[in-house]
Write a structure and sequence with these properties.
Blueprint lengths: L5 H40 L5
């Protein structure tokens, strides 16, 4: 197996970190969306307009 240059290793490492970070951001956004929907639903259930 041939040796990778320092630049290639750095690029590979950066892509790997970016992939993990992107996944975490998507997960956080999904949970945040569910939290907002739940807050709206429970907030409207507690209000009695009539």
């Amino acid at each position: 197996m041939r040796e990778l240059s320092a630049e290639a290793r750095l690029h590979f490492h950066a892509r790997n970190i970016s992939r993990k970070t992107g996944s975490g951001v998507h997960t956080a956004a999904l949970y945040s969306a569910f939290a907002v929907i739940a807050a709206i639903v429970f907030g409207t259930l507690s209000v009695h307009p009539f």
